[in-house]
Amino acid sequence: MKYILLVCDGMSDVRGKNEKTPLEFADTPNFDSIASLGINGIMDVVKKGVVPNSDTGHLSLLGYDLKKHYPGRGPLEALGAEMKLNEGDIAFRANIATVESDLTVVDRRAGRIKGDLSELEEAVNSIDIGMDFEFKHTVGHRGAFVLRGAGKIVSDTDPHKEGAKVLKSKGQKKASAAVNLFTKKCYEVLNELPMNRERDLPANMILLRGAGLYKEVPSFYEMHKLKGAVIATVALVRGVAYFTGMDILEVEGANGTEDTNIHGKFKTAVDALENYDFVLVNVKATDNFGHDGNFEGKVRMIQKIDGQLGILENALDDCIVAITADHSTPVSKGGHSADPVPICIAGNGIKSDRIGKFSEYDCAKGSLKRIKGIELMKILKKY
Ligand code: ZN
Ligand code: ZN
């Protein structure tokens, strides 16, 4: 059997002060049609009461036990930034920031710095701290930082607030000393950088957070005996793909925004079933609208996805299609929440449970009842 798992990032919502959720409010004939053909339920993606991020959400959906296999956010960010990791490396998420000479944080984002920062990246990577490391700038004020061969975990340096000093890293002696030396030298080197002369908020510090020790895990294929691929533009989801040894399929015009090429993503997923047993498609913008508290935008995006869902519906004779979200991102909250997400599974051989509408509240009445994210692969493989 072949499978397509469509993850509409953060699409799930709650009624809150709006009478309906965006999914209930939106006109979604194709979501509803697939729901009416299949079995439905709701899902605690990580577990009841736990707020998932895109990384923990996707890993759970792929059947990974977070307690055993979650490496922390840093390694997944670094992998998503196309950095290579080896066992024993520590990876962090990195913020380009502004500090005073006594290392008090003035701005955690260096005035929301953007553009080409290769000069800064090069300067950072030239610092000598007695251990191998690599810094990579990604977008805006963000980047990833890998300390090679540390062996054991050390703590973050990002104090997460302005007015506080850069934290001293603790933990494994040699590695934490190297990280602390990095903080010191980072300021000395970056503060003198020509690009900083004209900046009110000089980009003179790299703050490190989300520390995680990289350890290889069983690949998606080893876990499920399915050859898997991922279609996603979000770096963190791509990081999950690298982490689990799944191939990434590129789609022209896919960009993580409202204008993304949904048609191309769905078409690529269906075509990929020639070579793969399982394709995960992530569509991102629903989450962004949730974060922005933009109800209308989220409705618009859901309808946009719906407009292309016929491509997946037409493939139902040849594969199983599951549709869900990696977490809720309620517009009323402007962030992720622990609320369960709707899930629908349809395809050849699956008998309808007569739920006619794909939504958080309708799916709750379906025959799947309330499941956990980690159970999804097991349920899919039953068909
Ligand atoms: Zn997400
Ligand atoms: Zn989000």
Describe this entry's structure for a reader.
Strands 9-8-10-1-11-12-2-13 form an 8-stranded mixed sheet, with helices on both faces. 31% of the residues lie in helices and 19% in strands. It has helices at 22-25, 29-37, 54-61, 66-69, 73-80, 118-125, 173-191, 220-224, 235-243, 262-272, 285-291, 295-308, 310-313, 360-363, 376-381; strands at residues 3-8, 39-44, 90-99, 105-107, 133-137, 142-147, 205-213, 228-231, 247-248, 278-283, 320-324, 341-347, 369-372. The chain is built from 15 helices and 13 strands. With 383 residues, the chain is of the alpha/beta class. Helix 9 (235-243) links the parallel strand 8 (228-231) and strand 9 (247-248). It has 2 domains: 3-71 and 217-381, Alkaline Phosphatase, subunit A; 77-213, no CATH class. The mean pLDDT is 97. The structure holds zinc ion (2 copies). Residues 9-10, 54, 57, 287, 326-327 line the site of one zinc ion.
Question: Main attributes?
Answer:
383 residues, Alkaline Phosphatase, subunit A, 2 domains, eight-stranded mixed sheet, 31% helix, elongated, binds zinc ion
Outline of this structure?
By secondary structure, the protein is α/β, with parallel strands linked by helices.
CATH class of the largest domain: Alpha Beta
CATH T-level fold name of the largest domain: Alkaline Phosphatase, subunit A
CATH architecture of the largest domain: 3-Layer(aba) Sandwich
- The dominant shape is elongated
Q: Which series of helices and strands comes N to C?
A: EHHEHHHEEHEEHEHEHEHEHHHEEHEH
Question: How much of the polypeptide forms β-strand, as a percent range?
Answer: 15-25%
Mean pLDDT: 97
Q: What is the overall number of helices?
A: 15
Q: In what order do the strands lie side by side in the largest sheet?
A: 9-8-10-1-11-12-2-13
Report on the biggest sheet.
Answer: 8 strands, mixed
Alpha-carbon distance between the termini? 7 Å
The total number of structural domains is 2
The total of beta strands comes to 13
Structural class: alpha/beta
Rg on CA atoms, Å: 22 Å
Low-confidence stretches: none
CATH superfamily of the largest domain: Alkaline Phosphatase, subunit A
